[in-house]
Amino acid sequence: MIIIFTGTPGTGKTTLAIELAKKTGIPYLDVNIVIQECNLRESYDKKNKTYIVDEKKLSKVLTEIIKKTKNLIIDSHLSHYVPAKHVDYCIATKTDLKVLKKRLEQRKYPKNKIKENLEAETFDICLVDALELKHKVIQIDTTKNSIKKCLEMIQHGISKNKR
User: Fold this and answer.
1) What is the per-residue pLDDT across 17-49, written as a single tens digit (0 to 9) for each?
2) Which domain, by its residues, includes 68?
3) Is position 159 within any domain?
4) Alpha carbon separation from 21 to 94, 102, 109, 121, 148 (Å, rounded)
């Protein structure tokens, strides 16, 4: 089973992806490591203190990784760029804007990057992109739900939507 996690940075996708991998025994893949190891960084945005990545190149690399395995949990706010035909489920995480702002401030994100991420969350950018790319999406609100509850919602969503 190939499961991707997407969502605005700070919404809980990494925490849930790692916990789901532990619970299921499905290998976990951190896309940031793939980006670094495959030299997919195109440039550095000094204003937002972040690297710019070519989504098409990343998608090709992730697709090749997926083709070599039957089970994988992929974690990144860019993971939804993998073609839906290679993915069983897309978990889109979401959280309240006040909670998200606190999380991003704790990570010491620059103010303009926090603003950009809050706008992305307001307009559900990752969710909308995933739906437009025809992924089978299970949306999880991490605002007030425990990790255990979120994992239960994911498992319920998967069992309800078995292909």
Assistant:
1) 999 999 999 999 999 999 999 999 999 888 877
2) 2-154
3) no
4) 19, 26, 27, 25, 13
What pLDDT does 46 receive? 84
161 within domain boundaries: no
Write out pLDDT tens, residues 99-127. Answer: 999 999 999 999 999 999 999 999 999 99
Q: How many independent structural domains does the chain possess?
A: 1
84 found inside a domain: yes
**Residue 41 located in a structural domain:** yes
